[in-house]
Design brief:
The chain is mostly helical. Among the domains are: 10-41; 51-120. Helix content is 58%, strand content 0%. The chain contains five helices and no strands. The longest helix is centred in the middle third of the chain and has 34 residues, at 50-83. The protein is extended, with a radius of gyration of 38 Å. The protein starts with 9 loop residues before the first helix and ends in a 35-residue tail after the last helix. The relative contact order is 0.06.
């Protein structure tokens, strides 16, 4: 009968080391067969479509138009604030500089800047009516309803 100490020899350690190295190598190198299979199964397109540039150009034009529309709206709100007597020249300069960031790389920052400027525009306080605390039944007349013919009134 063999004891566990009989398994502790150079050959057993060599087999364990080889298996460990194989598992470690398989873990490290498993990406390469997958990449090869993916490129073999789904090869990349050799030529890009001409229409792709048109679509990207149209999308960029639409995003640029959205930024210009936001700038126009913010400028209109600034003009209203100027008519009300507020000093808004700094805000208008900041809005105009945000319009200068109309490139794909900086467009999101320009949109965010214009939205923050829109919140910074001063406005006159709204005049609100004060609601009464008491509800008088005289203020609310009973609804004009008729009982159905032959219907009995509830007790």
């Amino acid at each position: 009968m063999e004891t566990p100490l009989d398994w502790l020899n150079a050959r057993t350690f060599a087999v364990i080391a080889a298996l460990s190295a194989a598992v470690f190598a398989a873990d490290l190198l498993q990406e390469y067969p997958r990449r090869w299979h993916r490129s073999w199964r789904y090869p990349p397109q050799t030529e890009k479509s001409i229409l792709g540039r048109d679509i990207v150009g149209d999308l960029e034009a639409r995003k640029s138009l959205r930024l210009k529309t936001l700038h126009r709206d913010v400028s209109a709100e600034i003009a209203i604030a100027r008519e009300e007597g507020f000093e808004v020249d700094k805000i208008q300069r900041a809005a105009d500089s945000a319009l200068g960031l109309d490139s794909p790389r900086y467009r999101a920052a320009a949109m965010e800047r214009l939205q923050k400027l829109r919140l910074a525009i001063p406005r006159k306080p709204l005049k609100m009516r004060v609601a009464r605390d008491e509800d008088d039944p005289e203020d609310f007349p009973p609804p004009r309803t008729k009982h159905a013919a032959g219907a009995q009134k509830r007790p």
